[in-house]
Amino acid sequence: MKKYLFLLIMLVLAMIFISGIVMAEQITMSLSYGGSEGGEDDISAKKFKELLEAKTNGAIKVELFCCEQLGKEVDIVTSLELGTVDMAIMGTTIHQQAAPEYNIWSAYYIFENRDEVLQIMNGPIGERVGEAMLKNKGIRMLGIGLRGPRHLTSNRPIMTAEEVKGLKIRIPLQPIYVKSWEKLGAFPEAIALGELYTALKQGIVEAQENPLDYIYSIAFYEVQKYVNLTAHQRSFFTYVMSEKFFQRLDEELQKAVLEAAEETAKFHNELQQANEDIWRQKLEEKGMEFIEVDQDSFKEALKDIPDEFADTWAPGFYEELKAELAKIRG
């Protein structure tokens, strides 16, 4: 009896020891994004977590940080470079900071539709952008998640570019954004996304621009009346990872990360396409009015902006992109 009791105790101790080793080997990674609960980046972050934890049998645990909890996008770029944040789902700020020589994506009316974005960013040009991020900042580009077109919201209807004059608008901190809205006669202010709701409520700014999912998930409908359908930018999320974190992983875990990111991007893009009409319906139910805008007036007013920034991009890149888009459009 004592012998069996001894063996049982040893077995329990061995299991505890093995369990301790497994727990010690578990890797915890941080995933930062700016959106709130229910936004497309939030849904996709949760999908990535689900996929990666399943593919690695729990060897990697993904901790999610929404709503700029770990810092503004500009700060997250530095954190990725230093390895203090492991992964992020980001807007065009990552391109401005990590691959400025290719950051034409912040210019307005570059793309006409979602398919153009995917063909460019999943093709040779996108590969070069990823190589530049890795070389410049040690940040690995994992995939592209489409966003809905960015639209202008305000408390007065805006139908033409002329009516933007004098508007106090919040924009992300990027030179081409500033130049574009100044060209339209607005007064742009760079305010962190997490502070924007309060800024609108207090009248610090009177307008902002974002895709419909952000307008809904951050409850801008409580402080804005109109969605002016400018569709001035076909933007996208970029899934990025600190190369320092990626190189900590063995080959099998690296493969799992890449597969999970690819599957999440596909899921994200299907989700975004299906949800655009749903977001509009939800916003209308919250009382927002949608205004049909003379987009041609905006395109005409902003047509020279890319040329003004062409010398800040890689030599010949703007012309190359225009040629590729011409091929896609036939």
Automatic annotation (TrEMBL):
Signal peptide: none annotated. This is TRAP-type C4-dicarboxylate transport system,periplasmic component. Keywords: Coiled coil, Signal, Transport. Transmembrane segments: none annotated. GO terms for biological process: transmembrane transport. Residues 246-277 form a coiled coil. The keyword Coiled coil applies. InterPro entries: DctP_fam (IPR018389), TRAP_DctP (IPR004682), TRAP_DctP_sf (IPR038404). The keyword Coiled coil applies. It comes from the Bacteria. It comes from candidate division TA06 bacterium 34_109. CDD domains: PBP2_TRAP_Siap_TeaA_like.
